[in-house]
Amino acid sequence: MQFGIFSVGDVTTDPTNGRTPTEHERIKAMVAVALKAEEVGLDVFATGEHHNPPFVPSSPTTMLGYIAARTERLLLSTSTTLITTNDPVKIAEDFAMLQHLADGRVDLMMGRGNTGPVYPWFGQDIRQGIPLAIENYALLHRLWREDTVDWEGRFRTPLQGFTATPRPLDGVPPFVWHGSIRSPEIAEQAAYYGDGFFANNIFWPREHFVRLIDLYRQRYAHYGHGTPEQAVVGLGGQVFMRKNSQDAVREFRPYFDNAPVYGHGPSLEEFTEQTPLTVGSPQEVIEKTLTFRESFGDYQRQLFLMDHAGLPLKTVLEQLDILGEEVVPVLREEFAKGRPAEVPDGPTHEALVARRDTAAPAGTGG
């Protein structure tokens, strides 16, 4: 199992004091959070991609390249790379470059995003979101695996004898997750290629994501990549912790109530009942996270959203200390118990290279 955090990079007013961080402060805070993640022993830091206020991470590879230079072990990923509005040629080259600079500590998560206006900003039509995701990824997949590509499609100019540079590190492309909160077509796409499927189940009830992940697992097996249990699954989560539950709820409530993404809707209690959000003690976080396996099966990556809703950086760093010291070590131990030997570990560059070199069975990504 890989454990880590993801950030959406929102610039949100702190409801307890009315202060709004500057874009500069928020960008620097994201870097500080990533460095802290490595310090406390987490495996992954992932950033979103947004091109509109109140968000700042418009250039994920720039941020991840900077973090790569300041870390040694941390896996660097995206929690959304917009496959619909980014040119797949640019994605291929940007992430191959990052892969070299980070010595392979890179993967990425394809997604369509949740901001409708981004489509016309980049010359696309939101009504073509699914076809764009399918066609653009088909091209990206080839660009990383074929030295010379001839290609023609609906949404961009044709390519003739094109070579994306640099070529992937060791001839092995970065591992790809396909992220979705609602679309079975994306689960099907992930299964077709034998890639990972990330269900960012932070907003909707568990039953919805059980259906999506079950579909992905069955189709993964259908396409011959391995058994359903060998499919590569990632999950989202949100936590806020203090030593005792009452303090955690009291401190987090104003942030929840005013958060742009879920404030002024269901109550904190309703939201924690229906979604993975856990506000309480470290033990409560452990207990709830361990229930995910009951619903979704053995999986490979668990990412938590920590730095959002206007929480001060100092508080977020405290949360990461608790996560790294008290929660993740227990989760690692408990998730390892009874985990079948055929279930793959979380994907790494070294594992993908070894799999290629030894022609290992499918199921560890690719």
UniProtKB/TrEMBL annotation:
Residues 1-297 form the Luciferase-like domain. Transmembrane segments: none annotated. The lineage of its organism: Bacteria, Bacillati, Actinomycetota, Actinomycetes, Kitasatosporales. Residues 339-366 are annotated as: Disordered. CDD domains: Tetrahydromethanopterin_reductase. This is LLM class flavin-dependent oxidoreductase. Keywords: Monooxygenase, Oxidoreductase. It comes from the Bacteria. NCBIfam families: LLM_CE1758_fam. It holds the Pfam family Bac_luciferase.
